[in-house]
Amino acid sequence: MVAREQFEVELKNIETTIIELAKEAGQALEDAVHALFTQDLELANKIIERDEVLDKKELQINEEAILLIAKEQPVARDLRRLIVAIKISSDLERMGDNATNIAKATLHLGKHDLVVHSSLKDMKDIAIKMIDLSTKAFEMQDITLARKLSEMDDLVDSMYGDVVREMLEQTATNPQKIQHVMQMAFSARFIERFADHTTNIGESILYLVKGESFDLNQ
Length: 218
What we know:
Methane Monooxygenase Hydroxylase, Chain G, domain 1, PhoU, 86% helix, cytoplasm
């Protein structure tokens, strides 16, 4: 196999691992919010344990990308593909951390009779659509799909603001709920941050295709 073909194979393997990591991060969020709503402490513990797998996969992507840069000294678009691989894997690892933090909030709350704010599930549903869209945009290197993430992120941000306002109002009339309210607000924040990272992925895709930096979080 000639050098160029070998480079393409190794780069494609890195990109395939990124897509796997994206699916695992999305599943972690799905499971974390489910555990929160159902007070499934066993599932919450499993999510926390699985985070180590995501961390190792990010490390693997980074090491393979850096090795390929050192070995092949790529330029222009090839170099951008490797830089973007490192940036996206970092965002995905942090998205896994956000899901893990929701699992920790579930453990912190334990079994209780209080109701989880319904908007958290709506926020999660949009965040899952965003990671699916960002993964598709990455696979296809489609900047039109990448730009759509900005509007979806605005919606998640707005929902997060509403949840926090409603939660704070509850503390005024039910101060005994403060611990519950804080964990709900934290969980909403982790979903909001998860969505923010998908827009970072969109920005990386725009950088890959256009060779310029964009801000989709404005």
